[in-house]
Automatic annotation (TrEMBL):
Residues 93-317 form the BPG-independent PGAM N-terminal domain. GO terms for biological process: glucose catabolic process; glycolytic process. InterPro entries: Alkaline_phosphatase_core_sf, BPG-indep_PGM_N, Metalloenzyme, PGAM_B_sf, Pgm_bpd_ind. One of its GO terms (cellular component) is cytoplasm. The lineage of its organism: Bacteria, Pseudomonadati, Thermodesulfobacteriota, Syntrophobacteria, Syntrophobacterales. It comes from Syntrophobacter fumaroxidans (strain DSM 10017 / MPOB). Keywords: Glycolysis, Isomerase, Manganese, Metal-binding. This is 2,3-bisphosphoglycerate-independent phosphoglycerate mutase. It comes from the Bacteria. Residues 14-538 form the Metalloenzyme domain.
Length: 550
């Protein structure tokens, strides 16, 4: 690839400010579109006055198995940070299962041997849906069939984390009921004892991320390991009861439950058991993994703390090697944009609030949580509030922006990257009014950053990792809005298949920004090389081509 130039000038903008508006996609249709319906004078100004294009942010363009897979933060930030495509977790696990390789791996063999040697129970914990963001039920089903018919494992317990965030907001029974039948079939045909042990909403137990709320993990420990909590005869009974008691509650927020019979909880985790955490994505897997693995774990008291063999679906942190044992090799994402920029001595700042802090650090750097170069990089985390975000849709946008403006005005950084979580985190709640305010909060902050960038003579890039807030209603196959019993639109909490904007606001006066029409199917993987162009550096050969004309 040819080196970029800036019309002969060697000047580098100070800084390049790179904004990820998490979960803010582009969609023509205004209905249920919290982005189009928000008051966004700054975004509107950018779209009227700056060059921009639309980028593909889902499916095969970001390394997912198919184009019906919506985008997500992991694959989005991986793609932006690494400038090229990697087959992602969802795809790699599919392949490992289809080839049978997963069952020959060391991780799987040791799990089976441990439980067999101790006459223990084999447990699965994970996100119970086909959302394909953190997990997929097909993976769980394949492992259960193999355990029952190939390994002849007599006793299995499944701890189900109810989704409602990557799939329909109240779809839990659509997964639970067929799964109960699937387990009954296994039990009859293999003369086995496979059952659901308990579970709870994914935003209540176990699946915390970036240490935003360890209490969720403690509550998960009590549910899965101790078998403590409100007891029900079945998962169906638990779900129906909680829905009756909490009208309007959505699956991700359902309280924890344990399944019990005459002799108590059916699925406690005990000495000699094997445990698989079957999520392939790491952010919401690392904390529970640490609780299972760390000898001198200090965050909460693990009571009880049984001697088990634990494995994750994948290696979640490829630098810290978490977990120690896993079933499928993760993508090896190397030569990321930051590795190159640090090697060239550029000074970098990354910032978000807790909920997305790891997105601009860990995901951006190819699923490595550490810094690349201590001396050149500054990572700033603004602590997120522990609140339902539909009640505080502005989140920490203003605080992030305060810190970004200080960074711009310091003239210390070559590139400042930041993530505004609002469109995504509030989009996931399904509350339209809040999502609109979330987008407005981002826009208000954008205005401040635009002014500061202009003052500094910098370049501002505004884009997103995938859509969410621009599509807040469920639609049927024909595109019609699905409605509830009173005619109200059914809320959509998940991400979308929509493209995202990529806008360049160049106040540096060093170049003419023009998109190159020859770039076919532009997507998130084209961004990294474009940043090199904007920084007046030659993009690495191995990267997907930059979006701009030289
Ligand atoms: O983990 C989550 O909150 C959702 O499953 C996906 O959201 P994200 O990919 O934007 O983090
Ligand atoms: Mn995201
Ligand atoms: Mn999201």
């Amino acid at each position: 690839m040819a080196a970029s130039s800036t019309h002969g000038k060697s000047h580098r903008p100070k800084p390049l400010v790179f904004v990820v508006m998490d979960g803010i996609g582009y969609r023509e249709n205004q209905l249920g579109n919290a982005v189009a319906q928000a008051y966004t004078p700054n975004l509107d100004w950018l779209l009227q006055n700056c060059p921009y294009t639309l980028l593909k942010a889902h499916g095969t363009a970001v390394g997912l198995p198919s184009d019906s897979d919506m985008g997500n933060s992991e694959v989005g930030h991986n793609a932006i940070g690494a400038g090229r495509l990697f087959p992602q977790g969802a795809k790699l696990v599919n392949e490992a299962i289809a080839s049978g390789r997963i069952f020959q791996g060391k991780g799987w063999r040791r799990l089976v041997d441990f439980a067999q040697a101790h006459r223990g129970t084999f447990h699965f914990i994970g996100l119970f849906s086909d959302g394909n963001v953190h997990s997929h039920l097909d993976h769980l089903r394949a492992m259960l069939l193999h355990l029952a018919f190939e390994e002849k494992m007599p006793r299995v317990r499944v701890h189900i984390l109810l989704d409602g965030r990557d799939v329909g907001e109240t779809s839990a029974l659509e997964y639970v009921l067929p799964f109960e039948k699937f387990l009954r079939d296994i039990n009859t045909r293999a003369n086995a004892d496979y059952r659901i042990a308990g579970g709870g909403g994914r935003m209540k137990i176990t699946m915390d991320r970036y240490e935003a709320d360890w209490d969720m993990v403690l509550l998960g420990w009590k549910t899965h390991v101790a078998g403590e909590g409100r007891a029900f005869a079945s998962a169906e009974e638990a779900i129906l009861t909680y829905r009756r008691e909490n009208p309007g509650v959505i699956d991700q927020d359902l309280p924890p439950f344990v399944i019990a019979d005459e002799s108590g909880p059916v699925g406690r985790i005990q000495d000699g058991d094997s445990v698989v955490y079957f999520n392939f994505r790491g952010d919401r897997a690392i904390e529970i993994t640490r609780a299972f693995e760390e000898k001198d774990f200090k965050v909460f008291e693990r009571d009880p703390n049984p001697h088990v063999f634990y494995a994750g679906m994948m290696e979640y942190d490829t630098e810290l090697h978490i977990p120690r044992n896993y079933l499928v090799e993760p993508p090896r994402i190397e030569h990321t944009m930051n590795e190159y920029l640090c090697a060239r001595g550029l000074r970098l700042m990354a910032i978000s609030e807790t909920q997305k802090f790891g997105h601009v650090t860990y995901f951006w750097n190819g699923n490595r949580s550490g810094k690349i170069d201590e001396r050149l990089e500054q990572y700033v985390e603004i602590r997120s509030d522990k609140v339902p975000f539909q009640e505080r849709p502005w989140m920490k946008a203003a605080e992030i922006t305060d810190r970004v403006l200080r960074g711009i005005r310091s003239h210390r950084y070559d590139m400042i990257r930041l993530n505004f979580p609002n469109g995504d985190m509030v989009g996931h709640t399904g509350v339209f009014q809040s999502a609109r305010i979330a987008v407005e909060a981002v826009d208000l902050s954008l205005g401040r950053i635009m002014a500061a960038a202009r003052e500094a003579g910098g370049i501002l890039v505004v884009t997103a990792d995938h859509g969410n807030a621009e599509e807040m209603y469920e639609t049927d196959k024909a595109g019609n809005v699905k409605r509830g019993p009173n005619g109200e639109p059914r809320a959509k909490t998940a991400h979308t298949l929509n493209p995202v904007w990529f806008i360049v606001y160049d106040t540096s006066g060093t170049r003419t920004v023009r998109f190159n029409p020859a770039i076919e199917k532009p997507g998130l993987t084209n961004i990294a090389a474009t940043c090199f162009q904007l920084l007046n550096l030659a993009p690495p050969e191995m990267y997907d081509p930059p979006l701009l004309e030289n």
